[in-house]
Amino acid sequence: MQNHTSTDQLPGDAGHSPDLPLIKAALDASVSGIIITDNQLPDNPIIYCNESFERMTGYKRIEIIGHNCRFLQADDRQQPERLKIRRAVQEGEHVSVEIRNYKKNGDLFWNELFISPVQAADGRVTHFIGVQHDVTRRKQAEEDLYREKELREQKIKERTLQLNASKEYLDSIIQTVRESLVVLGPDLKVIGVNRHFLNTFKVTASETEDKSLYDLGNGQWNIPKLKELLENILPSNNPVLDFEVEHIFPHIGKKLMLLNAYRVELEGEYRDRILLAIEDITDRRAIEQRKDDFLSVASHELKTPLTTIKGYMQILERLLPKDADEKLLEVVGKSTKHIERLNTLIKELLDVSRIQTGNITLHRERFDFDEMVRETADTIQNVSPKHRLVISGSTGIDYEGDESQLSQVVSNLLSNAIKYSPDSANIEVNLARVSDYVKFSVTDFGVGISPDDQRKIFERFYRASDTQKNYPGMGIGLYICEQIVSHHGGNLWVDSEHGKGSTFNFTLPIKQKTNE
């Protein structure tokens, strides 16, 4: 039987090779843990380990030499990798495994182990060399990634269930909406429609799905301008708002449809789809037209007799003796005041009629903008002595526009400020030049306007909910103001906090393209 040393002897010719010290020095300098086992001894014991292996395991060399490698698995010896190692040793083959090992202090570390056989000249496997790396950090990272992946997959499953539930919920809502809805793909082919669309246009789902929007029916949607707008939605994400289509539709006749289209995006999905909402406004527009016609006719018919009455009242005022009864004078005065109020209302109705029919015209002349505001404010001040109009700032601009109409805007805004702040002593007016614009602002400290009402305050005949009962009016003054400012190329808006007053502002471009 051959004798083997436990610390210094390496596989070879009993240590007589002149290269042996160099080999040992190289092995000890390696950053990899290296061991050599003697396959000719019982239980294949370790006969060599380098310093890196000591550092890796926490054991000293004296505690390692003579042991079988399995001592590093401690009590954790049921790992399937152990079977791979045993089979490789028995067969004298190479093997590579990642196995759980334990340091001297009991800490777990993952060992990436490469085992290679060393053969004698006659082919017998005399030794095994094990090269080992501590891959605990990598395994921990892999474990973290695996757990994160599992957690992500679980979240995806949960999210998928939520999305499916949300989709069913949204589908149920869409199907009950009393408006025609169409979902289009990026090629503007119909992906789906709701029941209201099918019922309105008297078609079936099979006649719409996967069909181009422009091929539906008799080509009623094949409108160049609409096509241009829809095709610009996807790249720019700009919605199509309030686009009117008047057409003779098959089965339902001539209709006026209002279209709104948006690019759909839900949780990052479906971003190349378009939701098209179609509203039949034929009846509504007809009612509005009848109402406009009535207002136009009524205001014109009322203006003639009112002018006559106003004339008679002026004659009556001149004929009254100076010593006329005080009660009579009061009645005549009140009558004149109410006639003037009625005359103003009729004038506003005529203005609305002209705006609706597109007959509003601007008589442009240069005028001193600041002087116009001051003269208008003086007129309002004379009839409202309880309030003080405080004017600050100036524009210094000779503005080219319709002085009469802009004076009407200023008068209306000042009158409203007084009307809706009965308990406030001061009304603040500010004039300024802002960049290439003149700016007018009037601030009151009255009832204010709620956010919901602010969005609608400039609509025709709209009146804020809190003011309808307490303050008389028809809800057309601000509409007229907005239209006049708009026709001058300007912008009118309100800043308000409910219960704390309002500031109405408008700007007019000094050099502008007008909407006449």
From TrEMBL:
Q: Where in the cell is it found?
A: Membrane
Main localization of the protein described in the UniProt heading: membrane
Tell me which residues make up the Histidine kinase domain. Answer: 297-512
> What are the GO BP annotations of this UniProt entry?
osmosensory signaling via phosphorelay pathway
Q: Which InterPro entries match?
A: BphY/WalK/GraS-like, HATPase_C_sf, HATPase_dom, His_kinase_dom, HisK_dim/P_dom, HisK_dim/P_sf, PAC, PAS
Span of domain PAC: 95-147
Q: What EC number(s) does its UniProt record assign?
A: 2.7.13.3
Q: Which GO terms describe its molecular function?
A: ATP binding; phosphorelay response regulator activity; phosphorelay sensor kinase activity; protein kinase activator activity
Looking at the keywords, is Nucleotide-binding present?
yes
- Look up keyword Transmembrane helix and say if it applies: yes
Which keywords are on file for this protein? ATP-binding, Kinase, Membrane, Nucleotide-binding, Phosphoprotein, Transferase, Transmembrane, Transmembrane helix, Two-component regulatory system
Identify its membrane topology class. Multi-pass membrane protein
Membrane-traversing stretches: none
Q: Which reaction does it catalyse?
A: ATP + protein L-histidine = ADP + protein N-phospho-L-histidine
Span of domain PAS: 19-92
Database matches in PROSITE patterns: HIS_KIN, PAC, PAS
Could you name the Gene Ontology cellular component terms for this entry? membrane
**NCBIfam families, sorted:** sensory_box
Q: State the protein's name.
A: histidine kinase
Q: Which organism is it from?
A: Mucilaginibacter conchicola
